[in-house]
Design goal:
The chain contains 10 helices and 8 strands. The chain is of the alpha+beta class. The chain has one domain. The chain has an 8-stranded antiparallel beta sheet, with helices on both faces. A hairpin with a 4-residue loop joins strand 4 and strand 5. The termini are far apart. The N terminus is likely disordered.
C-alpha cells in the first residue's frame, strides 16, 4: 500500500522524481509531518503563512504540526521554514491564474508535508533538464531494465499520465520550470486491493536545483524536493495508523536511488555516449521527438566532457536510427 500511494503524486526529481518519489517512510534526514485540521479559520491562516506575496497573506502565523506515529518530531519552526522557502521559490507572478489557484489549493491545506534533503549528482546541466522535464525517459529505461511496471502517457508538452497497474493512476503537470526551480502539480487516486474505498490525492512538488563545478571542472547538480500532499481526510487516519512507521522511508530511498541513477546516466553520457544512444533507440514509452532530444543532449554532454578533458576534438554520432533501419 505504501508503495502504491507513493506513486499517487511521486513524479518529480526527474519526476524527479519521476514516479520514484514515494511518500511513506521514516528517517532522520527527512520526515513527513501531518498537518492537523482545526477550525476552518485556523487552517486558512496557517496555510497563508506558508505562501508569499503579492497574492497571499505573508504574515508569519505558526504552522502547527502533529507527530506521525513512529516518527521523531521535527521542530515546528524548521518545518515552517523549509516549506516557506520552497514556496517562496515559486515565481507566482509568472504563472497563469489557474496554476496559481491550484498551487494555493494544495499548499494552503496540506495533509502532509515533507522535505527531501539536498543531493549532489554529476550530470551535464542540459541533460539534467532534459530528464527532469521528460521523466518518461527514466521510466522507459527502468522498464528496459525490468525494474518497473509503471506505464506513462504524454498528454501534452507539459502533462503526463502514469499508471502502475495495481490501482494507482495520476496526472502530473509541469506548471513552471527554469534552471533553478521546477514546479509540479499532481492529481490522482488509488483504487486497489489494499484500500476498501478509492483514495483521492493531490500533490505540489517544488524541485530546487543549483549548478556548480567540482575540482576537476565537472558539472555538479545539487537538488532538493519539497512535497505538499493533500489526501482524502477519511483516509488520513487509516494511513497514519497503519503506515505511520513507514512514512518517509520509501520517499528517502527512492529519492536517493533516483539521484544516484541520474548520476550514473550523466557519467555514462560523458564516457559511453554510443551505449546510451543504443539504449535510447530501444527505449519504450517515449515519443520519437523525446528520444532524439535525449540523444542530442547525450552527445552534447559527451562533447563538453571531452572538451574539458582532452585536447583532440572528437565527433559524436551521426543521425540516430533504430536497429535494423
Amino acid at each position: 500500500m505504501a508503495r502504491r500511494l507513493s506513486r499517487l503524486v511521486g513524479i518529480p526529481w526527474a519526476t524527479t522524481i519521476a514516479l520514484a518519489t514515494a511518500w511513506l517512510g521514516n528517517s532522520a534526514s527527512a520526515q513527513w509531518q501531518a498537518v492537523p485540521r482545526g477550525d476552518a479559520g485556523a487552517v486558512s491562516r496557517a496555510g497563508c503563512a506558508l505562501l508569499v506575496p503579492p497574492i497571499f497573506d505573508p504574515r508569519p502565523i505558526p504552522w502547527g504540526v502533529r507527530q506521525v506515529a513512529g516518527v521523531e518530531p521535527v521542530a515546528v519552526d524548521d518545518v515552517r521554514t523549509t516549506g516557506r522557502e520552497a514556496l517562496a521559490a515559486i515565481p507566482l507572478n509568472r504563472l497563469t491564474p489557474t496554476a496559481q489557484k491550484r498551487i494555493e489549493a494544495i499548499s494552503s491545506r496540506p495533509t502532509l508535508y515533507r522535505h527531501l534533503t539536498q543531493k549532489s549528482i554529476r550530470c551535464d546541466p542540459e541533460l539534467f533538464l532534459c530528464l527532469v522535464r521528460n521523466p518518461e525517459i527514466l521510466v522507459g529505461t527502468w522498464e528496459l531494465m525490468g525494474i518497473t511496471q509503471v506505464q506513462t502517457r504524454r498528454l501534452d508538452a507539459y502533462q503526463m499520465e502514469a499508471v502502475d497497474g495495481s490501482g494507482t493512476t495520476c496526472t502530473v503537470d509541469l506548471v513552471y520550470g527554469d534552471s533553478a526551480v521546477h514546479v509540479y502539480v499532481a492529481e490522482g487516486f488509488y483504487d486497489g486491493k489494499m484500500a476498501p474505498n478509492k483514495i483521492n490525492g493531490k500533490g505540489l512538488f517544488v524541485l530546487r536545483s543549483s549548478q556548480e563545478v567540482d575540482a576537476a571542472g565537472n558539472p555538479v547538480i545539487r537538488g532538493s524536493l519539497d512535497c505538499f500532499l493533500q489526501i482524502d481526510q477519511v483516509a488520513v487516519d487509516l494511513l497514519l495508523r497503519t503506515f505511520g512507521p513507514l512514512i518517509g522511508r520509501a520517499a528517502d530511498h527512492n529519492f536517493n536511488e533516483t539521484a544516484r541513477f541520474i548520476d550514473q546516466l550523466g557519467q555514462s553520457a560523458e564516457r559511453n555516449p554510443e551505449g546510451l544512444e543504443e539504449l535510447a533507440m530501444k527505449m519504450p514509452q517515449v515519443s520519437e521527438a523525446t528520444r532524439q532530444q535525449f540523444i542530442t543532449q547525450v552527445r552534447h554532454a559527451a562533447r563538453r566532457y571531452h572538451e574539458r578533458t582532452f585536447t583532440t576534438p572528437v565527433k559524436f554520432g551521426g543521425p540516430a536510427t533504430a536497429p535494423g533501419r
